[in-house]
Amino acid sequence: MSTLTQQLPTSRTLPVFPVGILALLFGLLAWFSYQQHKATTGEEFNDQLLPLGIHLMQAELKGRSMMPGDLTSLPKATQDKLVDLVQSFRQARHIALLVADANGRVLLDSAGLTGESSVRLPYPKLLEEISSGMVKGDVARYYSYSSDGMSNYAVLQALPDSGLILVAHGSTDSPLSEIGAPYYLIVLGGLVAMGFVWYTGISSQKRLQRQHMAQIVTDPLTNLPNRRGFDLLAHQGVSEAVRTNQALSIILIGIDRFSNINDNYGHASGDTVLKRVSATLRTSLRGSDVLCRWGGDEFIVMLKNTPADRACLVAEKLRKLVSDQTFSFSGEQVHLSVSAGVSGLIPKESLRSMLARSNHALHQAKDKGRNQTHMA
């Protein structure tokens, strides 16, 4: 601070042009700071919360039999689950989850199913995108825009063959609207000696946050939800099972002697195994089932409305599908197997206890010879 002060002329002799340059610099720094704040908040929505809301709605609707564009044709239990999901996101995360038809008419919001209502999406920008037919296929579309002093973020995704469009929307306040640009410039003026160092630090922090957020809920190798993502989905699944008095089961799957693949054929071959096994599991499960990479050579599956004995049958099917596959490494044909531990939710049990029982059952399967399923 003192170094910069010594280099500046006094206020009586300070030329007008340098003052204008400093004012412009302060304004640019203020604008950059605002963009950093807005981008970081937007990444939190776009990389984590909004895609999670879309994923959960997809899990409830995928594979359900219904008339195109008519949620009321769904089973009553499915309707109730959707309403609970939308309301929980509104209350806990301040995010609006909606289901609309191809004309932008709202079929479901936090108030419940709208029936024959002609209410359309309250977001003109998104309504325009839907009306133009831009939202189609199974690719999510991300949007960010400003209106009325708010920064808005949204994800739209069509649900194929259903006539439905899934919407997740969130908003944040603009920091400049709260403190005012003049005061912001005065504060930056007092910190101008540290301005560039501070801005560089913010930029580095933003890059680290972007890398971190990309890893929060998704495993980069298999593109499955990771342990943190499973925790979010499983807590909701347990709460839903308790509320509706429905069965819930967990399968913990471990690849047998996976370390031998890495030791004998290299880690690239190990990665190939993980991706192949994850693809096999993914394509063999229902749309309502939750599959995640638990870590290392382990995967975890949560089966809704499924008792433990039926979950054992599912685990056996998955085990056989993996054991039937052949891998080729360094010219050698290699067969793999998996072991599985199954637990079913019991009254007044916590998720942690359920996971511990699945883990114990998996270790029993491995201790008794591998390539088998055990139930806790």
Description:
With 376 residues, this protein is of the alpha+beta class. It folds into 2 domains: 1-216, no CATH class; 227-375, Alpha-Beta Plaits (2-Layer Sandwich), CATH 3.30.70. The protein is 50% helix and 21% strand. It is built from 12 helices and 13 strands. The protein has helices spanning 2-7, 16-61, 76-93, 124-131, 175-179, 181-190, 195-214, 227-244, 258-265, 267-283, 308-323, 351-367; strands at 96-101, 106-109, 112-113, 141-147, 150-159, 164-173, 248-255, 290-295, 298-304, 326-329, 332-335, 338-344, 373-375. The strands form 3 sheets. Strands 3-2-1-6-5-4 form a 6-stranded antiparallel sheet. The protein starts with a helix and ends with a strand.
